[in-house]
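ESCALATION

Customer reports they have been waiting on this structure for their group meeting. Please prioritize. Original submission:
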Amino acid sequence: MFKKSKAIVSMIMVFSLMFATGCNSTTGPSSSAGQDGSSAEGNNEVIVAKMSHSSAVDSTYDVGAKYFADLVDEYTNGTVQIDVFPNAQLGSDRDALEGQRMGTVDISLPGASMLTMYEPSIGVFNLPFLFADKEEVYSTLDGEVGQEIFSSIETQGLRVLSTFESGFRQVSTVSTPVTSLSDVSGLKVRIPDGDAYLNTWEALGANPTVIAWNETFTALQTNVVEGVEVPITSFADAGLSEIAHHFSYINYMYDPVVLIVSQTFWDKLSTEQQEAVQKAATEASAYERQYNSDLEEELQTQLESEGVTFYNPDLSEFQAAVQSIYDEYEYQDELNAILDFLGRST
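Update from on-call: job pushed to the front of the queue and completed.
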């Protein structure tokens, strides 16, 4: 009887050890470390978080995401680890955001325009010709005004830590170059899904059509559309220079890419870990922005060698054409806060 009891006790001890070992290093959406504010360094627990983005491996987003993950590992002494899943492996940006709210994804990199399905006021960043240059973008997004607007998403269980960039959105065409507003009249242009894009191109007099990005090349090739609005990096990545030989810099929209975490993940971090992750996000933002800007300069030279001609239209008539969007915009408080910060008015 004693031998049997002793065997049972031994088995219990083995299972207890296995359970304890399993809890000390977790994989899935973030582990339970740090929920009470204690440091994971003190109890040897490691938080492993899933980070999703929809861009290709080695794209600017991917480079920035990997840099962020490396910094998090360094600044938390390995107690927080980020696994990056590129190429929409965990689903589209919309899927990832929903996953963050449900607890299956911890971090993602959607365009700020995607956040409007939860908090419409964030769409202010997507108003056409809002920013004159990247300096205005960075000072607004990183400053008090931008942070306050982004903080409105926290009621949805999401938290913006910093922003990456894909660059200003331009317009490229197959045959007729866009050198003035009249060239846009009736132009069949591919746009992504979203009111900001639709309203802008209708105001400019174009004929916008929503087409999935992976169908854009074929749509241009078969004349379903005559042009596409897109940052230069995306234009090059998709090989659109094979078809669209005219590229016009109109800088009509800057859609920030947000490095956003779920509140569930954030709350599992100790105060020290939160500070470390925020520091990593801020530094990764600066790194990715510079990487993207350097790449943009290199791409123009490359694309010119591939037969693409570049244009710089006068933007005053474009800006005047979209004034009605500003007049009718619902979130005037957010808009005026940005315009006051930039020293402008409607």
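Sent to customer with the following note: Residues 1-27, 35-42 have pLDDT under 50 and may be disordered.
Escalation resolved.
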